[in-house]
Amino acid sequence: MVQPNLPPFLENAGLHSFEHLLATYVRSSEISSKIVYAGPMGCRTGFYLLTRNIDHATVISTLKETMKFIAEFEGGLPGESEVECGNYLDHDIPKAKEYAREFLDVIKNWTVEMINY
Predict the structure, then answer these.
(1) Signal peptide position in this chain (predicted)?
(2) Which end of the chain has fewer CB atoms < 10 Å from its terminal CB, N or C?
(3) Distance in angstroms (rounded) separating the CA atoms of residues 13 and 90
(4) pLDDT at site 117
(5) For the chain, how big is the Rg over CA atoms in Å?
(6) What average pLDDT values come out for the chain (117 residues) when binned by 10 residues?
(7) For the chain, which residues make up each domain, given as ranges?
(8) Contact of 34 with 51, CB cutoff 8 Å
(9) Is the Cβ–Cβ distance between 93 and 20 less than 8 Å?
């Protein structure tokens, strides 16, 4: 989502809210049974989305749908209560939405052919 070792890094509160929304969406999506992990990189430059037994085209389209969901999110943040979240006071939904809009712009034209490892 951002360049390694070059500020600005993702801010903790926005990153945290983004994590909640990302995890909520992909765990509720049609590919939920194929999600292994969805969570932040410790370096605050992006997120991991680990899947199994799914084609790249479906992952790309789900990622685009997820960014749209986050960018347009309204309402109470899922899992934000003190009981559900270990740092429930540290959230920034507007910043999470900003991150999603920015990343959606980056991935909007992604294709399977562009995936390189």
Answers:
(1) none
(2) C
(3) 5
(4) 65
(5) 14
(6) 87 96 96 95 91 96 97 96 96 98 96 85
(7) 12-108
(8) yes
(9) no
